[in-house]
Every structure is written in C-alpha cells, then in structure tokens.
Design a protein that fits this description.
Elements (H helix, E strand, L loop, with lengths): L4 E2 L2 E7 L7 H5 L10 E4 L2 E8 L2 E9 L8 E7 L5 H14 L7 H6 L6 H7 L10 H11 L4 H15 L1 E5 L2 E5 L3 H6 L2 H5 L6 H13 L5 H5 L3 H9 L6 H11 L11 H12 L6 H12 L3 H18 L3 H8 L1
Parallel strand pairs: 1-7
Antiparallel strand pairs: 2-6, 3-4, 4-5, 5-6, 7-8
Helix pairs in contact: 4-15, 5-9, 5-12, 11-12, 14-15
The structure holds a DNA duplex.
DNA sequence: CATCAGGGCCCTG
DNA sequence: CAGGGCCCTGAT
C-alpha cells in the first residue's frame, strides 16, 4: 500500500444551487453501498476526483438553507490550480450534484399521498453521482449478479490494487484508477481479485475510455432517446445498468422503464405491503402517479426509506440488504 | 456434501 | 428471440 499523496493546496468557491436545495439528501445516498473514495458527515461531504488531468480532493460544506442554499466548495490539489481549472471543477460539481436543477415543477406535480411524506422531509434533494461516467460504469458492473456484500468486496479489492490514496482536509480517501490502468491489467490479475467473469467486462469497457473515444460532456447534451443507444453500446451495459446510468449519471428523471429484482422487492413492500408484486404493476403505477418525474419521485421514496432505516433499522429491509 | 439462485449481460443457435 | 454460461457466495 502506497503512502497517501498530500493535497496541500486549496481554493474555495461559493456555489449557489437553485432553491429548494437539500444538502444532506443530495450528497449522501444511504441506499448506495459505501465506497472508500468518499465520506459524509452532517454538513460536510468529501470525495476524490480525477478531472482535467488533476488528482483532486473535494470538500462540499453546507453553508446555506433549503430556501437560501449555498455550498462552499473547496478544491484540494498537489500544486496550485489555475483559476480556469477551478472554474471547470466547479462547473463539473454543479453538474454531478445537479445543483442547477429546477425542481419547482416536480414538487408541485408529484406531491401526492405516496410521495408527500418523503417530499416534506427531503424537498430539494437531487439525484447525484459524484463520479465520472467511467467510474459509475465500474460500479454498475460490480452490482451485476451480485449481492451487496460481494459488490463491496470486489470494489475494495479493485481500489486496493489499482487505486491510489490522497490526504486532504484531515481526511484520507481512495482515488479511482484511470481507465487505461484496467485496459493494461492482465485479465488473470483481475480474476485473482475474485471479480469473476467481470474481469473481462472491466477490461473491455475500459478500452473506449482509455482511447478517449467517449465524450461524456457531449453525451450529457443528447436527448434521452439518442443517448440510450450510445450507453447500450458500452460493453456490459444492458437494461438494468442503462436505467442506473440514465438516472444517476445523466439525471433523466423519467428513467424508470425496467425494475431490477432488488428494487422490485423493496417497492413491493413499500407501495403495497406485499412480498413480490409484478414489476409491470409497479412501473405502471409510477407512470400514472408521477409521469415524466417518475424515477426522481421513486428515488425520493427509496432514499427516505433508507434514511429511516439508518436511524432505526427496518427488519424487512435489513433482510433484503443482507441477501 | 451438493445444488442453486443472485442488484445481468453477452453470445450462440 | 430464447436460453445457456459465467465467477463467487451464502442459503437450503
């Protein structure tokens, strides 16, 4: 294990999300499995980022309120950053955490008896992914055909073997590897990390990113119907992963066309108090209730449940997480 | 102890 | 277009 690289230079900029904005709900997603590249404590979120050729540490601090939001973003780096780079990082953070989203229409249109309680607690919460498209793709592949525990194990092995570590702001966190590292890694080396057949997927999917063939910024600008085939063309992406990508990376609030088994079980309990309701029924109900906001609305209910669970364990949910 | 499905996807027939 | 195969793990 290498020593952590110290990121000793720091610059702070003020970000102003469009109100309403909920800091905790946006930067921390208790339904997600934990990864060593980020840490959350009330009011402060830290994560690492490879961006613009730099190895960075980010600190997001909540210095506003739901109605008058402000986030103090501090960017940590090895050497001083040009002002233009800090600007680019700030713009990237605004995208990744969806800070410019206008949720007024959503709050007005979706405040029904199902979403109401969650909306009251989390009004202004964004869908967010602190990582890049490539990094999210790795996460999605580790979710496939695996339980939470196994996914966490694989993620830790990969970070330990291919990632780095940085120290900043009193924290020490892992950094993702650049895609070229997995492109170059022997498949047998990956298999030794017990990622199984995903070794092949992890290598193949890294190639276009290592070659610079994926323009993430350009993809963000595409309409969903055009974006969809681009994402499906990435090796290892099928209907389930597509849904995660469209919603979490590309913030398409209606990306709920497919319901994976785990989510199906949870929504079955949540909406109907039943063990297992047909996926089509759940999808149709979300469409009927929330229309073009259906995935964002489902996300609110889902995360609200996990926040409750982290405060006071919910037995049926605990059983589903363990599995 | 053996068998099997699991937070899918690719590839073949 | 249906279904077998793939890595590992924990449940049965």
């Amino acid at each position: 294990m290498l020593d952590a690289i110290a990121l000793t230079c720091a610059q702070t900029v003020a970000l102003h999300p469009r109100p309403p904005f909920h800091f905790a709900g946006t930067v921390h997603k208790p339904s997600h499995f934990p990864t060593p590249d980020e840490a959350y404590e009330p009011g402060i979120h830290r994560r690492t980022m490879r961006f613009a050729g730099e190895l960075l540490g980010l600190r997001l601090e909540d210095v506003g309120s739901v109605a008058r939001p402000e986030v103090a973003l501090t960017v940590f780096s090895r050497a001083p950053l040009a002002a233009a780079v800090v600007e680019r990082v700030a713009a990237e953070v605004r995208w990744r955490f969806d800070l410019d989203a206008d949720l007024a229409g959503f709050c007005a249109a979706c405040d029904d008896e199902v979403l109401g309680p969650a909306l009251a607690r989390w009004r202004g919460m964004r869908v967010s992914a602190g990582v890049s498209l490539y990094e999210f793709l790795v996460i999605v592949v580790l979710l496939q055909n695996a339980t939470v525990r196994r996914t966490v194990q694989m993620m830790e092995s990969l970070f330990r073997t291919y990632g780095g570590r940085v120290a900043f702001d009193g924290a020490e966190l892992a950094t993702f590897w650049p895609p070229a590292v997995l492109d170059a890694a022997p498949e047998e080396e990956l298999r030794a990390l017990k990622v199984g057949y995903r070794a092949r997927t992890l290598k193949r999917q890294a190639v276009p990113f290592a070659q610079g063939e994926v323009d993430e910024a350009a993809l963000r600008a595409l309409p969903t119907e055009t974006l969809r085939p681009h994402l499906l063309a990435l090796y290892g992406v099928g209907p389930a992963s597509l849904g995660y990508l469209l919603f979490e990376v590309f913030h398409r609030y209606d990306a709920l066309d497919y319901l994976p088994p785990w989510e199906r079980k949870i929504y079955s309990h949540l909406f109907y108090g039943e063990e297992l309701v047909p996926a089509e029924r759940i999808l149709a109900e979300a469409e009927r209730r929330w229309g073009r906001w259906k995935m964002l609305a489902a996300h609110y209910v889902f995360e609200d449940l996990f926040w409750q669970h982290s405060a006071q364990p919910i037995p049926w949910l605990q059983a589903l997480i363990r599995l």
